[in-house]
Amino acid sequence: MNAAVEAAHLLLAVAALGDAAAGTSVTPTLLKAGSTTNTVPAGAEFAVDVRVRTIAEQDRVDAAIRAIAPTLPGAVIRVEGGANRRPMERESSAALFAEAVAIAEAAGLTPFEGVAVGGASDGNFTAGLGVPTLDGLGAVGGGAHADDEHVIVAMIPERIALLHGLLSAALPGGRA
Question: What is the pTM of this model?
Answer without folding.
Answer: 0.78
